[in-house]
Amino acid sequence: MDAPANSPCVAPVVDGRLLEKYDRPGPRYTSYPTAPHFHEEFGHGDFLREIKQGSTVNNPPPLSIYFHLPFCRSVCFFCGCNVIFTADRKRPEAYLSALSTEMGMVQNALGENRKVAQMHWGGGTPTFLSPDQIRRLAEDVRGRFCFEPGAEISVEIDPRETGGTHISELKQAGFNRLSMGVQDFDDEVQRAIHRIQPEALTRRVFGEAREAGFSAISVDLIYGLPAQSETTFARTAERILDLNPDRIALFNFAYLPQLFRHQKAIQAERLPAPAEKIRILQRAIETFTSSGYRYIGMDHFAKPDDALCRAQDAGTLGRNFQGYTPRAECELIGMGLSSISQTGSAYAQNHRKLPEYMACLDAGHLPTLRGIKLSSEDVLRREIIMRLLCVFELDTEEIGRRFQIDFESHFANDIGQLDPMIADGLVAWHGRRLKILPAGRMLARNIAMAFDAYLDAKSAARFSRTV
Ligand code: SF4
Questions:
Q1: Is 72 in the pocket of ligand 1 (CB under 6 A)?
Q2: Which of 191-200, 289-298, 377-386, 449-458 has the lowest mean pLDDT?
Q3: 81 CB less than 6 Å from ligand 1?
Q4: Cα-flanking dihedrals φ and ψ of residue 331, to 5°?
Q5: Are 339 and 350 in contact (CB under 8 A)?
Q6: pLDDT of 243
Q7: Contacts of 104 (CB under 8 A, 6+ apart)
Q8: What domains, with CATH codes, occur in the chain?
Q9: Which of 12, 203, 290, 330 could cysteine-pair with 64, CB 3.0–4.6 Å?
Q10: What is the whole-number distance in angstroms between the Cα of residue 410 and the centre of ligand 1?
Q11: Side-chain half-sphere exposure of 404, counting CA atoms within 13 A
Q12: Phi, psi of 221 (to 5 degrees)
Protein backbone atom coordinates (compact mmCIF):
# COMPACT_ATOMS: atom_id res chain seq x y z
CA MET A 1 0.00 0.00 0.00
CA ASP A 2 1.48 3.36 -1.05
CA ALA A 3 0.99 6.57 0.86
CA PRO A 4 -1.70 8.83 -0.62
CA ALA A 5 -0.13 11.63 -2.73
CA ASN A 6 -0.83 14.32 -0.14
CA SER A 7 -0.22 12.06 2.85
CA PRO A 8 2.15 13.21 5.55
CA CYS A 9 3.76 9.76 5.14
CA VAL A 10 5.43 11.04 1.94
CA ALA A 11 9.17 11.28 2.62
CA PRO A 12 10.43 14.77 3.43
CA VAL A 13 12.85 16.74 1.31
CA VAL A 14 16.09 17.07 3.26
CA ASP A 15 17.61 20.41 2.27
CA GLY A 16 20.93 20.77 4.10
CA ARG A 17 21.10 24.55 3.56
CA LEU A 18 17.68 25.09 5.16
CA LEU A 19 18.36 22.62 7.98
CA GLU A 20 21.56 24.45 8.90
CA LYS A 21 19.81 27.80 8.66
CA TYR A 22 17.05 26.83 11.10
CA ASP A 23 19.09 24.58 13.43
CA ARG A 24 18.64 25.93 16.95
CA PRO A 25 17.56 24.71 20.41
CA GLY A 26 13.87 23.85 20.57
CA PRO A 27 11.40 21.61 22.41
CA ARG A 28 10.50 18.13 21.17
CA TYR A 29 6.92 18.92 22.21
CA THR A 30 6.06 15.70 23.97
CA SER A 31 3.88 18.10 25.97
CA TYR A 32 2.69 21.69 25.76
CA PRO A 33 3.50 23.61 27.88
CA THR A 34 6.86 21.83 28.02
CA ALA A 35 8.26 20.29 31.22
CA PRO A 36 10.49 23.28 32.21
CA HIS A 37 7.24 25.17 32.82
CA PHE A 38 5.85 22.66 35.30
CA HIS A 39 5.94 24.10 38.83
CA GLU A 40 5.76 22.85 42.40
CA GLU A 41 2.63 24.82 43.33
CA PHE A 42 0.86 22.05 41.45
CA GLY A 43 1.05 19.17 43.93
CA HIS A 44 -0.34 15.74 44.71
CA GLY A 45 -3.75 17.10 45.79
CA ASP A 46 -4.17 18.87 42.43
CA PHE A 47 -3.21 15.76 40.51
CA LEU A 48 -5.59 13.60 42.55
CA ARG A 49 -8.43 16.02 41.76
CA GLU A 50 -7.58 15.85 38.06
CA ILE A 51 -7.67 12.05 38.00
CA LYS A 52 -10.98 11.93 39.87
CA GLN A 53 -12.51 14.58 37.64
CA GLY A 54 -11.55 12.62 34.51
CA SER A 55 -13.39 9.59 35.85
CA THR A 56 -16.65 11.36 36.65
CA VAL A 57 -17.47 12.42 33.06
CA ASN A 58 -19.71 10.29 30.84
CA ASN A 59 -17.62 7.92 28.74
CA PRO A 60 -14.27 8.78 30.31
CA PRO A 61 -11.32 8.47 27.94
CA PRO A 62 -9.34 5.21 27.93
CA LEU A 63 -6.05 5.08 29.77
CA SER A 64 -2.48 4.67 28.69
CA ILE A 65 -0.47 3.60 31.74
CA TYR A 66 3.30 3.91 31.98
CA PHE A 67 5.68 2.35 34.50
CA HIS A 68 9.18 3.73 34.92
CA LEU A 69 11.67 1.01 35.87
CA PRO A 70 14.84 3.01 36.45
CA PHE A 71 17.55 0.37 37.08
CA CYS A 72 20.56 -0.05 34.76
CA ARG A 73 23.79 -1.95 35.20
CA SER A 74 26.08 0.54 33.46
CA VAL A 75 25.93 4.03 32.05
CA CYS A 76 25.51 4.79 28.35
CA PHE A 77 27.12 8.20 27.84
CA PHE A 78 24.33 9.50 25.56
CA CYS A 79 21.53 8.69 28.00
CA GLY A 80 19.03 11.38 28.97
CA CYS A 81 16.79 9.17 31.14
CA ASN A 82 16.29 9.16 34.88
CA VAL A 83 18.32 6.10 35.89
CA ILE A 84 19.59 4.32 39.02
CA PHE A 85 22.87 2.51 38.32
CA THR A 86 23.35 -0.68 40.29
CA ALA A 87 24.56 -4.25 39.98
CA ASP A 88 22.39 -5.38 42.90
CA ARG A 89 19.55 -7.48 41.48
CA LYS A 90 17.68 -7.28 44.78
CA ARG A 91 17.54 -3.48 44.59
CA PRO A 92 14.24 -3.40 42.63
CA GLU A 93 12.33 -5.27 45.39
CA ALA A 94 11.64 -2.19 47.55
CA TYR A 95 10.87 -0.20 44.40
CA LEU A 96 8.32 -2.76 43.20
CA SER A 97 6.62 -2.59 46.56
CA ALA A 98 6.49 1.24 46.32
CA LEU A 99 5.09 0.99 42.79
CA SER A 100 2.38 -1.29 44.13
CA THR A 101 1.46 1.33 46.74
CA GLU A 102 1.34 4.05 44.09
CA MET A 103 -0.81 1.86 41.83
CA GLY A 104 -3.25 1.36 44.70
CA MET A 105 -3.60 5.13 45.17
CA VAL A 106 -4.07 5.74 41.44
CA GLN A 107 -6.58 2.90 41.19
CA ASN A 108 -8.64 4.34 44.08
CA ALA A 109 -8.74 7.74 42.42
CA LEU A 110 -9.65 6.32 39.00
CA GLY A 111 -12.58 4.26 40.29
CA GLU A 112 -14.08 1.24 38.57
CA ASN A 113 -15.03 2.39 35.10
CA ARG A 114 -11.68 3.22 33.46
CA LYS A 115 -10.24 0.87 30.84
CA VAL A 116 -6.58 0.56 29.88
CA ALA A 117 -5.95 0.74 26.11
CA GLN A 118 -2.16 0.91 26.31
CA MET A 119 0.53 -0.03 28.80
CA HIS A 120 4.22 0.68 28.45
CA TRP A 121 7.18 -0.23 30.67
CA GLY A 122 10.19 2.01 30.11
CA GLY A 123 13.31 2.98 31.95
CA GLY A 124 16.08 2.56 32.75
CA THR A 125 16.10 -1.06 31.75
CA PRO A 126 12.85 -2.94 32.43
CA THR A 127 14.64 -6.23 31.75
CA PHE A 128 17.04 -5.48 34.61
CA LEU A 129 14.14 -7.03 36.57
CA SER A 130 14.39 -10.79 36.84
CA PRO A 131 11.74 -12.87 35.02
CA ASP A 132 10.19 -13.54 38.42
CA GLN A 133 10.03 -9.80 39.25
CA ILE A 134 8.49 -9.14 35.82
CA ARG A 135 5.82 -11.77 36.45
CA ARG A 136 4.98 -10.37 39.88
CA LEU A 137 4.73 -6.77 38.64
CA ALA A 138 2.58 -7.81 35.65
CA GLU A 139 0.25 -9.78 37.95
CA ASP A 140 -0.02 -6.81 40.29
CA VAL A 141 -0.96 -4.51 37.39
CA ARG A 142 -3.49 -6.99 35.95
CA GLY A 143 -5.06 -7.39 39.38
CA ARG A 144 -5.65 -3.65 39.68
CA PHE A 145 -6.47 -2.37 36.19
CA CYS A 146 -9.00 -3.52 33.62
CA PHE A 147 -7.57 -3.85 30.10
CA GLU A 148 -9.46 -3.37 26.82
CA PRO A 149 -9.39 -6.47 24.59
CA GLY A 150 -6.48 -6.01 22.16
CA ALA A 151 -4.76 -3.40 24.35
CA GLU A 152 -1.24 -2.50 23.17
CA ILE A 153 1.17 -3.72 25.85
CA SER A 154 4.77 -2.80 25.23
CA VAL A 155 8.14 -2.90 26.94
CA GLU A 156 11.62 -1.56 26.22
CA ILE A 157 14.24 -4.28 26.19
CA ASP A 158 18.02 -4.05 26.27
CA PRO A 159 19.50 -7.15 24.59
CA ARG A 160 22.48 -6.97 27.00
CA GLU A 161 20.06 -7.55 29.88
CA THR A 162 17.68 -9.97 28.20
CA GLY A 163 18.64 -13.53 28.84
CA GLY A 164 17.33 -16.92 29.83
CA THR A 165 13.57 -16.78 30.13
CA HIS A 166 13.00 -13.01 29.92
CA ILE A 167 11.35 -13.13 26.49
CA SER A 168 9.01 -16.01 27.32
CA GLU A 169 8.11 -14.38 30.65
CA LEU A 170 7.22 -11.12 28.87
CA LYS A 171 5.09 -13.02 26.37
CA GLN A 172 3.32 -14.88 29.13
CA ALA A 173 2.75 -11.62 31.01
CA GLY A 174 0.73 -10.38 28.02
CA PHE A 175 3.21 -8.07 26.32
CA ASN A 176 2.56 -7.86 22.58
CA ARG A 177 5.10 -5.19 21.51
CA LEU A 178 8.84 -4.97 22.15
CA SER A 179 10.99 -1.92 21.68
CA MET A 180 14.66 -2.86 21.39
CA GLY A 181 17.46 -0.38 22.06
CA VAL A 182 20.23 -0.69 19.44
CA GLN A 183 21.44 2.90 18.72
CA ASP A 184 24.22 1.89 16.31
CA PHE A 185 25.95 -1.38 15.32
CA ASP A 186 29.32 0.27 14.67
CA ASP A 187 32.03 -0.91 17.11
CA GLU A 188 33.74 2.47 17.37
CA VAL A 189 30.48 4.29 18.03
CA GLN A 190 29.58 1.70 20.66
CA ARG A 191 32.93 2.29 22.39
CA ALA A 192 32.46 6.08 22.21
CA ILE A 193 29.03 5.86 23.88
CA HIS A 194 30.07 3.17 26.39
CA ARG A 195 27.49 0.70 25.21
CA ILE A 196 29.05 -2.47 23.88
CA GLN A 197 26.23 -4.48 22.34
CA PRO A 198 27.51 -6.96 19.76
CA GLU A 199 25.34 -7.28 16.67
CA ALA A 200 25.22 -11.06 17.16
CA LEU A 201 23.65 -10.54 20.58
CA THR A 202 20.99 -8.19 19.19
CA ARG A 203 20.24 -10.69 16.41
CA ARG A 204 19.94 -13.55 18.88
CA VAL A 205 17.47 -11.70 21.13
CA PHE A 206 15.53 -10.43 18.10
CA GLY A 207 15.26 -14.00 16.80
CA GLU A 208 14.13 -15.30 20.20
CA ALA A 209 11.42 -12.65 20.32
CA ARG A 210 10.15 -13.61 16.85
CA GLU A 211 10.20 -17.27 17.80
CA ALA A 212 8.22 -16.51 20.95
CA GLY A 213 5.55 -14.96 18.73
CA PHE A 214 6.24 -11.23 19.04
CA SER A 215 4.93 -9.84 15.75
CA ALA A 216 5.48 -6.18 16.68
CA ILE A 217 9.11 -5.29 17.32
CA SER A 218 10.53 -1.78 17.13
CA VAL A 219 14.18 -0.88 17.00
CA ASP A 220 15.55 2.37 18.45
CA LEU A 221 18.45 4.09 16.69
CA ILE A 222 20.15 7.41 17.37
CA TYR A 223 21.89 9.69 14.87
CA GLY A 224 24.38 12.39 15.83
CA LEU A 225 26.40 10.13 18.18
CA PRO A 226 30.18 10.45 18.55
CA ALA A 227 32.26 8.69 15.86
CA GLN A 228 29.27 8.33 13.56
CA SER A 229 29.56 9.18 9.87
CA GLU A 230 27.31 8.84 6.87
CA THR A 231 29.21 5.72 5.81
CA THR A 232 29.19 3.97 9.18
CA PHE A 233 25.54 4.70 9.84
CA ALA A 234 24.54 3.58 6.33
CA ARG A 235 26.02 0.16 7.23
CA THR A 236 23.99 0.10 10.47
CA ALA A 237 20.80 1.03 8.59
CA GLU A 238 21.32 -1.82 6.08
CA ARG A 239 21.88 -4.32 8.86
CA ILE A 240 18.77 -3.10 10.66
CA LEU A 241 16.73 -3.71 7.49
CA ASP A 242 18.05 -7.23 7.50
CA LEU A 243 16.40 -7.74 10.93
CA ASN A 244 13.10 -6.62 9.41
CA PRO A 245 11.65 -4.74 12.42
CA ASP A 246 8.05 -3.53 12.27
CA ARG A 247 8.93 0.01 13.35
CA ILE A 248 12.18 1.95 13.47
CA ALA A 249 12.63 4.97 15.71
CA LEU A 250 15.48 7.23 14.59
CA PHE A 251 16.10 9.79 17.30
CA ASN A 252 18.23 12.90 17.07
CA PHE A 253 20.91 12.74 19.79
CA ALA A 254 20.05 15.38 22.39
CA TYR A 255 23.52 16.53 23.48
CA LEU A 256 22.90 18.46 26.70
CA PRO A 257 25.96 17.93 28.95
CA GLN A 258 24.82 20.86 31.11
CA LEU A 259 21.73 18.80 32.04
CA PHE A 260 23.03 15.21 31.92
CA ARG A 261 26.35 14.86 33.75
CA HIS A 262 27.46 11.60 32.10
CA GLN A 263 27.21 13.24 28.63
CA LYS A 264 30.33 15.17 29.68
CA ALA A 265 32.24 11.93 28.95
CA ILE A 266 31.47 12.51 25.27
CA GLN A 267 34.06 14.71 23.60
CA ALA A 268 32.19 17.36 21.62
CA GLU A 269 34.81 17.21 18.85
CA ARG A 270 33.94 13.56 18.20
CA LEU A 271 30.33 14.43 17.37
CA PRO A 272 29.58 14.55 13.63
CA ALA A 273 29.71 18.09 12.21
CA PRO A 274 26.27 19.56 11.42
CA ALA A 275 26.59 18.93 7.66
CA GLU A 276 27.64 15.30 8.27
CA LYS A 277 24.77 14.80 10.72
CA ILE A 278 22.33 15.99 8.06
CA ARG A 279 23.87 13.56 5.53
CA ILE A 280 23.50 10.70 8.05
CA LEU A 281 19.82 11.56 8.48
CA GLN A 282 19.17 12.04 4.78
CA ARG A 283 20.74 8.70 3.85
CA ALA A 284 18.87 6.87 6.62
CA ILE A 285 15.53 8.33 5.49
CA GLU A 286 16.27 7.28 1.89
CA THR A 287 17.32 3.80 2.99
CA PHE A 288 14.25 3.14 5.11
CA THR A 289 11.63 4.73 2.86
CA SER A 290 12.98 3.00 -0.25
CA SER A 291 12.72 -0.31 1.61
CA GLY A 292 8.98 -0.20 2.24
CA TYR A 293 8.82 1.80 5.48
CA ARG A 294 6.74 4.93 5.70
CA TYR A 295 7.98 8.01 7.47
CA ILE A 296 5.84 8.87 10.51
CA GLY A 297 5.87 12.13 12.40
CA MET A 298 9.38 13.47 12.91
CA ASP A 299 11.37 10.41 13.88
CA HIS A 300 9.58 7.12 13.18
CA PHE A 301 9.36 4.66 10.29
CA ALA A 302 6.70 1.98 10.13
CA LYS A 303 5.38 -0.64 7.75
CA PRO A 304 2.31 0.53 5.81
CA ASP A 305 -0.12 -1.70 7.72
CA ASP A 306 1.14 -0.43 11.10
CA ALA A 307 -1.27 1.36 13.47
CA LEU A 308 0.94 4.49 13.36
CA CYS A 309 0.58 4.73 9.55
CA ARG A 310 -3.18 4.24 9.73
CA ALA A 311 -3.47 6.91 12.43
CA GLN A 312 -1.33 9.36 10.46
CA ASP A 313 -3.44 8.81 7.30
CA ALA A 314 -6.64 9.26 9.30
CA GLY A 315 -5.35 12.45 10.96
CA THR A 316 -5.67 10.88 14.42
CA LEU A 317 -1.99 10.42 15.26
CA GLY A 318 -1.12 11.81 18.70
CA ARG A 319 2.01 12.73 20.60
CA ASN A 320 2.77 12.45 24.30
CA PHE A 321 5.67 11.67 26.62
CA GLN A 322 6.05 8.25 25.02
CA GLY A 323 6.41 9.80 21.56
CA TYR A 324 3.92 9.18 18.75
CA THR A 325 0.79 7.17 19.52
CA PRO A 326 -2.14 5.88 17.48
CA ARG A 327 -4.36 6.34 20.58
CA ALA A 328 -4.33 10.12 20.98
CA GLU A 329 -7.59 10.05 22.94
CA CYS A 330 -6.03 8.28 25.95
CA GLU A 331 -5.24 9.94 29.23
CA LEU A 332 -1.70 9.08 30.27
CA ILE A 333 -1.01 7.99 33.84
CA GLY A 334 2.68 7.57 34.64
CA MET A 335 3.80 5.62 37.69
CA GLY A 336 7.28 5.29 39.14
CA LEU A 337 10.19 7.64 39.51
CA SER A 338 10.02 10.87 37.41
CA SER A 339 7.12 9.59 35.29
CA ILE A 340 4.77 12.15 33.75
CA SER A 341 0.99 12.00 33.51
CA GLN A 342 -1.25 13.88 31.11
CA THR A 343 -4.95 14.36 31.85
CA GLY A 344 -7.39 16.46 29.80
CA SER A 345 -6.15 19.77 31.21
CA ALA A 346 -3.10 19.08 33.37
CA TYR A 347 0.35 17.50 33.49
CA ALA A 348 1.91 16.05 36.62
CA GLN A 349 5.40 14.67 37.19
CA ASN A 350 6.57 12.35 39.96
CA HIS A 351 9.63 12.95 42.12
CA ARG A 352 12.89 12.19 40.34
CA LYS A 353 14.86 10.99 43.39
CA LEU A 354 14.13 7.69 45.11
CA PRO A 355 14.14 8.90 48.76
CA GLU A 356 11.59 11.66 48.04
CA TYR A 357 9.45 9.31 45.93
CA MET A 358 9.40 6.69 48.72
CA ALA A 359 8.78 9.30 51.45
CA CYS A 360 5.61 10.56 49.71
CA LEU A 361 4.22 7.05 49.43
CA ASP A 362 5.12 6.34 53.08
CA ALA A 363 3.27 9.53 54.01
CA GLY A 364 0.19 8.18 52.22
CA HIS A 365 -0.03 10.45 49.19
CA LEU A 366 0.87 10.43 45.51
CA PRO A 367 4.57 11.18 44.80
CA THR A 368 3.85 14.26 42.65
CA LEU A 369 6.79 16.66 42.42
CA ARG A 370 5.35 19.29 40.09
CA GLY A 371 2.87 19.88 37.31
CA ILE A 372 0.74 22.44 35.58
CA LYS A 373 -2.95 23.13 35.15
CA LEU A 374 -3.55 24.24 31.57
CA SER A 375 -5.39 27.46 30.81
CA SER A 376 -7.86 27.48 27.91
CA GLU A 377 -5.17 29.31 25.90
CA ASP A 378 -2.69 26.48 26.68
CA VAL A 379 -5.21 23.87 25.50
CA LEU A 380 -5.74 25.80 22.26
CA ARG A 381 -2.02 26.19 21.57
CA ARG A 382 -1.37 22.54 22.48
CA GLU A 383 -3.92 21.47 19.88
CA ILE A 384 -2.26 23.62 17.22
CA ILE A 385 1.26 22.41 18.03
CA MET A 386 0.26 18.74 18.14
CA ARG A 387 -1.66 19.06 14.82
CA LEU A 388 1.45 20.51 13.20
CA LEU A 389 3.76 17.78 14.56
CA CYS A 390 1.40 14.86 13.90
CA VAL A 391 -0.61 15.75 10.80
CA PHE A 392 1.64 18.52 9.38
CA GLU A 393 -1.38 20.61 8.56
CA LEU A 394 -3.67 22.98 10.40
CA ASP A 395 -7.27 23.74 9.47
CA THR A 396 -7.50 27.18 11.06
CA GLU A 397 -11.20 27.48 10.24
CA GLU A 398 -11.99 24.31 12.17
CA ILE A 399 -9.76 25.38 15.07
CA GLY A 400 -11.45 28.78 15.14
CA ARG A 401 -14.89 27.20 15.18
CA ARG A 402 -14.02 24.66 17.86
CA PHE A 403 -12.32 27.13 20.20
CA GLN A 404 -14.64 30.03 19.29
CA ILE A 405 -11.92 32.44 18.23
CA ASP A 406 -11.08 34.44 15.15
CA PHE A 407 -7.86 32.56 14.31
CA GLU A 408 -6.23 35.29 12.20
CA SER A 409 -6.61 38.05 14.78
CA HIS A 410 -5.98 35.80 17.81
CA PHE A 411 -2.68 34.58 16.36
CA ALA A 412 -1.66 37.65 14.35
CA ASN A 413 1.81 37.83 15.97
CA ASP A 414 2.42 34.09 15.75
CA ILE A 415 1.38 33.95 12.10
CA GLY A 416 3.82 36.81 11.38
CA GLN A 417 6.69 34.63 12.62
CA LEU A 418 5.96 32.17 9.82
CA ASP A 419 6.85 34.67 7.06
CA PRO A 420 10.53 33.69 6.66
CA MET A 421 9.54 30.00 6.67
CA ILE A 422 6.92 30.67 3.99
CA ALA A 423 9.57 32.48 1.93
CA ASP A 424 11.91 29.49 2.33
CA GLY A 425 9.23 27.02 1.21
CA LEU A 426 8.88 25.21 4.54
CA VAL A 427 5.21 25.99 5.00
CA ALA A 428 2.39 27.47 2.88
CA TRP A 429 -1.18 28.68 3.16
CA HIS A 430 -3.76 26.81 1.08
CA GLY A 431 -6.78 28.98 1.70
CA ARG A 432 -7.21 28.85 5.46
CA ARG A 433 -5.18 25.67 5.83
CA LEU A 434 -1.57 25.92 6.92
CA LYS A 435 0.41 23.09 5.36
CA ILE A 436 3.93 21.97 6.16
CA LEU A 437 5.66 21.32 2.84
CA PRO A 438 8.10 18.42 2.21
CA ALA A 439 11.08 20.77 2.82
CA GLY A 440 9.56 21.74 6.19
CA ARG A 441 8.95 18.21 7.48
CA MET A 442 12.33 18.00 9.20
CA LEU A 443 11.77 21.47 10.68
CA ALA A 444 8.27 20.88 12.03
CA ARG A 445 9.52 21.72 15.55
CA ASN A 446 10.68 25.15 14.33
CA ILE A 447 7.29 25.78 12.69
CA ALA A 448 5.43 24.71 15.85
CA MET A 449 7.64 27.03 17.92
CA ALA A 450 5.90 30.00 16.26
CA PHE A 451 2.79 29.10 18.33
CA ASP A 452 4.62 28.49 21.65
CA ALA A 453 3.76 31.31 24.05
CA TYR A 454 6.33 30.13 26.64
CA LEU A 455 9.54 30.17 24.60
CA ASP A 456 12.18 32.44 26.03
CA ALA A 457 15.98 32.57 26.15
CA LYS A 458 16.01 30.94 29.62
CA SER A 459 14.06 27.83 28.62
CA ALA A 460 15.95 27.52 25.28
CA ALA A 461 19.09 26.39 27.17
CA ARG A 462 17.19 23.27 28.31
CA PHE A 463 16.30 22.08 24.81
CA SER A 464 18.26 20.06 22.28
CA ARG A 465 18.93 21.36 18.78
CA THR A 466 16.13 20.93 16.27
CA VAL A 467 18.34 19.24 13.65
S1 SF4 B 1 20.42 4.36 27.50
FE2 SF4 B 1 19.08 2.85 28.46
S3 SF4 B 1 20.49 1.25 29.16
FE4 SF4 B 1 21.75 3.04 28.76
S5 SF4 B 1 21.91 4.10 30.72
FE6 SF4 B 1 20.17 5.00 29.63
S7 SF4 B 1 18.38 3.88 30.29
FE8 SF4 B 1 20.19 2.68 30.89
A1: yes
A2: 449-458
A3: yes
A4: -85, 140
A5: yes
A6: 96
A7: 144
A8: 1-33+375-467 (1.10.10.920), 37-373 (3.80.30.20)
A9: 330
A10: 43
A11: 1
A12: -120, 160
